[in-house]
């Protein structure tokens, strides 16, 4: 993947320095590192101009895929929204998994960011 400039995972991972939480020498074999990286990424996105970003709740998408995709098509002004909403049948929830044991502070930070994301996420009603 390095040959095509893909540095998102594996031995070629080059993490983006969103903040000082996760450094380039962080141990990405640890779940806490990925959780902290997720938190840093979404905290950064939440700090940007929200008029230029559309967040979608995965749970809302799985609960009402057609309505959520229609709201997304409307929000971004798709000329042919049916091309997107026709894919609603391809959306399904992931398998349930036990919540892993991770550092309490990392988990608390991630949950707080998730709550902020949920508050600004596009709903199936378009709001």
| Oligomeric state, counting identical vs distinct chains | single chain
The structural class is: mainly alpha
Q: Helical region count?
A: 5
Give the helix level as a range of percent. Answer: 40-55%
Task: Outline the biggest β-sheet.
Answer: none
Cα radius of gyration in angstroms: 17 Å
Instruction: Work out the count of structural domains.
Output: 1
Shape: globular
Low-confidence stretches: none
Protein name: Sulfotransferase domain-containing protein
InterPro entries: P-loop_NTPase
Organism: Phenylobacterium glaciei
What would your notes on this structure say?
By secondary structure, this protein is mostly helical. It has one domain (about 1-120). It is built from 5 helices and no strands. The protein has helices spanning about 30-45, 60-65, 65-75, 80-85, 105-120. Helix 1 (about 30-45) packs parallel to helix 5. It is globular.
List keywords for this structure.
0% strand, 127 residues, single chain, globular, mainly alpha
Task: Give me the secondary-structure topology.
Blueprint: H1 31-47, H2 58-63, H3 65-76, H4 81-85, H5 104-120
Short summary of the structure?
This protein has 127 residues and is mainly alpha-helical. The protein is built from five helices and no strands. Helix 1 (31-47) runs parallel beside helix 5.
